Amino acid sequence: MAWAASRLAEGEPVCLATVVEKKGSAAVREGWMIAVSRSGAVGNLGGGYIEERVIAECLEALKSGKPRILRFWLKPGEPPPGYIPTGMVCGGEVAVHLNPVFPPWRIHVLGAGHVGYAIARLAHFLGMDVYVYETDPRAVERRDLSFAKGVFVGSLPELLRKIELRPTDAIVITFGDEERDSVAVEAVARMEASYKGWLSSRSKAALIKGRLSKKGVPREALDSIRAPMGLDIGARTPEEVALAVLAEIVSVFRGTRGAP
């Protein structure tokens, strides 16, 4: 369905509900489908209670991420175990398969240095769509970034204008020098994303955030950027830092606390 594809392209998960079985009399046919997202639904399951219940169950499936089959009882009397009573007396049974579909996670990595490259590689390994932004062409030339969905090189203001961020994305700042970090933090603070992180010590983050706050950047926006980013695993190497950062990002995306 074109509508479902467009929702997925915008980063919004969709649940596809399909009538997979019909026995006896019912106001639906096998193959009928409805696509449901948090922003609406498109399709037809005949209207009425079945369609309303399927839409509600689709929204729950988007939370759990698990497919399932709903079996509706359209006959008089108590339904068998596992069937949903409908109060209808058409004389049939209907089975609807719910299939939640999720778009690939996306991450925007600002900086292609040792840590930025390690984060990009691990993110790709985890199945994320990776976009890399770097001001130094040499940093890009010496890395194999063929796996990335997009690699952008230019001045920092140009790069920041090229970022097409979805609310469901992650974005991380890994430049490391104060000048580029300050510019990137000011811009990213105003962006909307599920995860915003910055490769920085607490003292450096406090210093730069303090300066930006005095410039008029809202403190709440600045504090939406995690600095230092990543779970505390005692990381030392770029690869270990990448592991800590991606573990925290996955935790945020999955809606967990990142605790044992």
Share of β-strand residues: 15-25%
CATH superfamily of the largest domain, by name, is NAD(P)-binding Rossmann-like Domain
**SSE topology string:** HEEEHEEEEHEHEHEHEHHH
Given as residue ranges, the uncertain stretches (5+ residues, pLDDT < 50) are none
Work out the count of structural domains: 2
Task: Give the averaged pLDDT, no decimals.
Answer: 93
Count of DSSP helices? Answer: 9
Query: Mind telling me the CATH class of the largest domain?
Result: Alpha Beta
> How many strands, what sense, and barrel or not for the largest sheet?
6 strands, mixed
How far the N terminus sits from the C terminus, by CA atoms, comes to 40 Å
Strand order of the largest sheet: 3-2-1-6-4-5
Task: Describe, in plain words, how this protein is organized in 3D.
- By secondary structure, this protein is α/β, with parallel strands linked by helices.
- It folds into 2 domains: 2-101, no CATH class; 106-254, Rossmann fold (3-Layer(aba) Sandwich).
- The chain contains 9 helices and 11 strands.
- It has a 6-stranded mixed β-sheet. A 5-stranded parallel β-sheet has the order 9-8-7-10-11, with helices on both faces.
- It is elongated, with a radius of gyration of 24 Å.
- The mean pLDDT is 93.
